[in-house]
Amino acid sequence: MSILVFNAGSSSLKFGLFTDPNCALLVSGALDWAGGDRHHSLLTLRTAEEIVMQSRTVDVPDDPAAVCCALQALAEAHPDGEQTLAGIQVVGHRVVHGGAEFSQSVLIDGAVKQSIARWSALAPLYNPQALATISAAEVALPHARHVAVFDTAFFAHLPPRAHVYPLPYAWYSDWGVRSFGFHGISHQYCAGRAAEILRRNSAGLRVINCRLGTGCSAAAIHGNVAVATTMGFTPLSGLMMSTRPGSLDPGILPHIERRHGLTADDLDAALNHGSGLLGVSGVSSEFFEVERAAEQGNAQARLAVDMFADHIRAAVGALAVSMGGVDVLVFTDRVGENSPPLRAMVCQGLECLGLRLDPLRNAANRLDSDISTADSPARILMIHAREELMIAREAQKMSQRKA
Prior knowledge:
The chain has 16 helices and 14 strands. It is an alpha/beta fold.
């Protein structure tokens, strides 16, 4: 028996096949259409040791096609061929927004899918894709148990002082406007992995995890419990991101609407698709392209990179204060793992928090490594994002509980 994981994003579908009961990774893969052209998506398959088995361009015009392509690639890569799919008994699905309804993973049924759909308005880049992936996977693997693992669940127990906004209280009590937090799967995994790397008991350990990818957020985690996070009601708030602005002065929006005639839909499109690194640089939503342009002297790209680092550094400082200090700072996900210059920029000025970056260790760019100086009072780690492993564990746990 095996466990399959689907991690549906706005421009990608990540997947992984794990053994049961120890959740050991057999093979992982990704379909990436970051350029927006799904007819020329990049399919990559990797072994458990991160060795690339296959990399080719495929045509996946929609989410069901992406699911079928992923399943076919897994079958072709595994010695058991098509029998591999028959052995999948549990499928875990990442769902970005579960609102206040889901404080833990759940078996998927019609009611759960309706709830996910209701929250799609607050995560338009993610929940619809997750629903399409779930539906396609249910058709392809009708014998399996399908489990929804929510990014918001890790933050479901934030205290009111951390999740209530300073708005009219009726907006919270009557309309449900509150901070939900996102990327909880990644934050939870990295907090646990940090304790393992440092051989520390997680109880009492104060971790700040910076999840830096297309979407970005930072979270304060004390004793494996979320204390605070930068994202809130939607995935728009907090840190500057690839195409999203992060937190900004709310007065900007009615001003633009009144003075320049933009509609609510215009604003929504600008905030979700035209802001962040892309909006400031005018170059790309892809961080590494913006970073390269900055190194080549593009002033707007340089500004975008500087702003990006400043947002992260400011968040680290605020989150450290929320816990009375910090023991571990973690960088993770694609940008956090692969840009030594950005990590160096973020860490400039954090010495006051006891965080001292070692330039040589940082440049070595080794996964799951300590990149702080030997005498740094607090540690700085770079941890490889393994959201799929966390989803597999959650899906397995939920399936066993309901068996």
